[in-house]
Records
---
Amino acid sequence: MIYKNPKGFPKNFLWGAATSAYQFEGAHLEDGKTMSIMDASIDLKYTDTSVASDHYHRFKEDIRLMNELGLKAYRFSISWPRILPMGRGKINKKGIDFYRQLVAELKDNGIEPLITIYHFDLPLCLQKEYGGWLSRKVIEDFSYYCKVLFKNFGNDVKYWFTINEQSNMFLLPHLMVFNDKIPIEKQKYSMNHIMTLAHARAIEIFREMVPNGKIGPALGISPNYPASCKPEDVEAAKIADDFNTYLFTDLYFRGCYRENVLKYMEENDIVPMIEKGDMELIGSAKPDFLGVNYYQSKAVRYARENIQNPTSSEIIPGLYKVVDNPYLDKTKWGWEIDPIGLRILLNNLNDRYHLPIIITENGIGDIETLTIDERVHDEYRINFLKKHLEQCNLAVNDGVNLFGYCIWSFMDLLSTSSGFNKRYGLVYVNRNDRDLKDLKRIKKDSFYWYKEIIDSNGKSLENLLK
Ligand code: BG6
């Protein structure tokens, strides 16, 4: 539906951009920081985190660029092993100092800091000691880490995200570390339960320590369309949403497991250990909002029980399998580009949970090189962002309480799957996966475009790129 007299974006809309620590900071073993599981990941072939975009050493220059862009908000994550090199116990003062300076510099530049507590980078020592997210011991260590953050930054930072993309053990298992002696499906549901408990404890502690702050999860969501109007496919799409989205959001916002997912776990003997008090804790933790990372939608069909060797997370035999959507263009990495899917998703989430929503990530990765005159003409990115922002605006007109939008990413950084070969930034970083070059920052065309959008609070969307 298109409105005859649409309203614009809300006043004080948080026009933002995002990054994460291990993808952006570098200095992975500097000033007391120890390795995280991402620094040590052998599955991510391009992910050498030692320098990344060198933000750790250049954050002042980077924030000057954010200021020039006119950013209202900047979402970044804190590196747990930079704050607590042993995962718990002794606090690394240099780590605290770094983020203190970062927050102060952002605020001096009128930029609202949005902190993600956990973005994939568990301290490696905790992985080695007890298996990381597979052990309930991590809940206590995570709670301690949260207390340290809330004590040090709770007065200065209003918006917090607990865990980035909890769904990763299901959708991107290469980002997790599994125990090869336990069936992998069992581990995934177990880790999910433990992460939900850690998220709930973080909120419980937050309410005591940061009474004036706001906190919620940030989830990666790809909504599912039925590949046809055959009832089996429609049902398959609903089930794919249940397993890939509502499993998590119902735990966060309704405090319960979806019945059909629970039955699936029972029938497959993969129910996690749910101890006395767990569901009470999960149910009592009420987030203030939902962060949505949106890149693509999926189309699914009903999948037969007897599919041989289902290797990908995109197939659950007997339930659904992901297929091509012939109506959508794709990125070079095969991600289906679907701005309207974002509007549909925002409306579904709003109808279901009636909560404020912020887009915590949205963007497009591509292979990019500098022109001779040191420019990056990224029209495809402008086009992608423009179309998604138009749908955000329509969602606002539909009644969705959308209070912010963060582009992934503010500056080029290590893509989790493809290093610097896949760039997302509004600002180019002059390096590639083989050569660090001079790491110079160069504004892309999309930087200037987004600046106009922010300056006009979204009004210039109508006038640009016709
Ligand atoms: C999200 C993550 O899943 O997608 C980011 O929160 C990631 O960390 C982004 O970079 C894009 O994925 P990729 O694999 O293209 O880097």
---
Amino acid sequence: MSAKNYPNPDKKYDLHSHSTASDGELTPTELVEYALECGIDVLALTDHDDTSGFQEAARAAQKGDIELIAGVEISTTWNKRLVHIVGLNIDPSAPALQAGLENLRGQRMERGARMAERLEKRGIPDALAGARQFSNGNILSRTHFARYLVEAGYVKNVNDAFKRHLGDGKPAYVASDWAELDEVVGWINAAGGVAVIAHPARYKLSATKLRLLIEDFKACGGVGLEVVSGSQDKKDTRNMAEYARRYELHASVGSDYHGPAQSWSGMGKQPPLPEGCIPIWQLWENHQS
Ligand code: AMP
Ligand code: MN
Ligand code: MN
Ligand code: MN
């Protein structure tokens, strides 16, 4: 792309999405095909703690008029809370990143076993085996437990599974020490990528805590804030645009699409970045000739 027509205001970006490599419902190929149907020009695959879907997605992207960005969404502990940090435009083969992600996947297995014990005590046996059928050898997510609880008839739907059993502070919730913020941002930067705070409105942080998170994140070398996210209202988007402006963070946009059953995050339906935001993709597109 030439400097003259940059940035192309007509391009549609979706820089946060999931495939069956984590807790999405579509295979990497199906996800790319769906993004094409939704009119996305630039898609980032950002599976939880795993980049194994990238190769397949890249092959599918070559067949259509869509650019694929390698990404990841990393489970991070900040001040004893779980936050999600997205890495964009990473080199998926970077050793420190892969070692860190492998460790997180191990923690997910341990957490899963403990969650299953808690569910068993609540009269729900065999949840680990049930969830693993849904994860199909890939990372083990609470989403897979939720799908099992639905299939086995314990709850009406996935949302209900989180509300009654799996959500933060609910009886089968098991807190875990994920990777620390400075480690996570370090892995992403060492992989040549850019680090972004995912769906900042979803953590329900007070203004003071959100400022602290952003300040810590910046001090670690983080550069982006997901200003437009699939699951948030206009007020949150305006608010996050203001944080991005005030803290000189680049703004990202992502649906957090997980598949047709999780309708809270439709693909291609996000509004454009608010006026005054500096798009995160400038950080990698500016380097292209
Ligand atoms: P985990 O990464 O295993 O802790 O699982 C978190 C994932 O569960 C998120 O990435 C979402 O995809 C999903 N999730 C969290 N809360 C809900 C909810 N209330 N309803 C549906 N899915 C949810
Ligand atoms: Mn998820
Ligand atoms: Mn997330
Ligand atoms: Mn996500």
